[in-house]
Amino acid sequence: MNSTTAVDKTPAPPAPPAAAAPGPPAAVPLRAVRLPGGLSLRWHGRATVVSLLIALALVAVTVGYLTAGDYPMPAGDVVDVLTGGGRRADRYIVMEVRLPRLLTALLVGAALGLAGSLFQTLARNPLGSPDVIGFTVGSATGALAVILVIGGGAAAVAGGAVAGGMLTSVLVYLLARRGGTQGYRLVLVGIGVSSLLASLNSYLIARASFSDAQSAAVWLTGSLNARGWEHCGPMAVALLLLLPAAVLLGRPLRMLEMGDDTASSLGVSTERARIWLVLIGVGLTAAATAAAGPIPFVALIAPQAVRRLSRATGPNLLGATLLGALLLAVSDLAAQRLLAPTQLPVGVLTGVVGGCYLVWLIAGQWRSRRG
After folding, report:
1. What is the C-alpha to C-alpha distance for residues 336 and 98, in angstroms, rounded to an integer?
2. Half-sphere exposure (CA, 13 Å, Cβ side) for 239?
3. How far apart are CA 174 and CA 315, in angstroms?
4. Helices of type H across the chain
5. Per DSSP, what are the bridge partners of residue 34?
6. Are 282 and 166 in contact (CB under 8 A)?
7. pLDDT tens per residue, range 264-278
8. Terminal-residue alpha carbon distance, the chain
9. Class for domain 42-367, per CATH?
10. Residues 147, 169, 346, 228, Cα dihedral to 10°
């Protein structure tokens, strides 16, 4: 006789929910603004506010830069000069001494901030700035070769800086590309190439005449002294050409930040996009180096400071550009005014601040077991 076993069909009580694994804080949501023609613009509220505050700080620094100094001027007199009036002495101070130097500082700082944002995003590493991975040193090597070996004017020095930066970027990229370009490999190869080029720069200075070696040594510290319209004009042209190109490549850059596999699955040609972005970043770095010498650490600090302030994901190109301009202008103003009567080259001040920041960054990564 078959027997059946009664089965209890009463549903079991639900299991208690498992504890959620700790993760990163939720990202601030982005907003999309529809534009005519079917286009859309991503908008990040906090990043926009941060950029506006940086722009206001730039206005304040500009006023202080043009009014303060050994020959103080009221803001009204500066406005008169800028609108075509003013006394002859005031016009000379503003138009020939202060304004070209200020514009050069703003343009060079903006270029370095933008280049640092590009390279750190491509390398997916906070140390992936052009002055750490050797592109700034390579631009300086090309410029020194023109100054000390070939000889030439400002145009030839700018061409040498661009050529040196491009050759260095090709060398670093090819050496780091084996098995796929990885952020840590790019940084390590760049540091090694930077050390070699720094030795080559020392050799070029050692074999030069005393006067040339002295001028080159001062130029290598990074300085805005005696900068005029001949330095400001080419820098403005370079930024006007390369900034829109970087903005147009913003979407592939955001995709590359998520990894090559993800970017490829989203339709991005990773190698082509990376090559174009590297060329833009090297062009910005070379132009900045040709205009003011190798100014350290602005490209390292600006993108990371903007990301910490805005708490936004992505490269934050606009914020890094504005903050780079602000950092260099404030540093040059401090080097001129706060340390008076001794006027240090601005590269010395940014080197001190940036070195402290780099030590803090590496120590923080080591403590979090990411170093």
Report:
1. 12
2. 25
3. 24
4. 45-67, 75-82, 88-92, 99-123, 135-144, 154-176, 183-206, 210-220, 229-248, 250-257, 260-265, 270-292, 298-310, 317-333, 346-367
5. 40
6. yes
7. 777 777 788 888 988
8. 73
9. mainly alpha
10. 50
Domain locations along the chain = 42-367
Closest Cα to residue 86, out of 102, 67, 58? Answer: 67
Residue 229 CB burial class (10 angstroms; 0-12, 13-18, ≥19): middle
- Using alpha carbons, select from 101, 104, 107, 55 the residue that is nearest to residue 239: 107
The whole-model pTM stands at 0.83
Structure tokens at 82: 């800028």
Structure tokens at 244: 């829109």
Q: Are 169 and 138 in contact (CB under 8 A)?
A: yes
Helix (H, G, I), strand (E, B) or coil at 228: coil
What does the pLDDT look like over 61-86, one tens digit per residue?
999 999 988 888 898 889 998 888 88
DSSP per position, 158-210: HHHHHHHHHHHHHHHHHHH-TTS--HHHHHHHHHHHHHHHHHHHHHHHHTS-H
Q: What is the pLDDT of residue 63?
A: 92
- Say which amino acid occupies 197: L
Widest CA span in the chain: 121
- Position 180 scores a pLDDT of 54
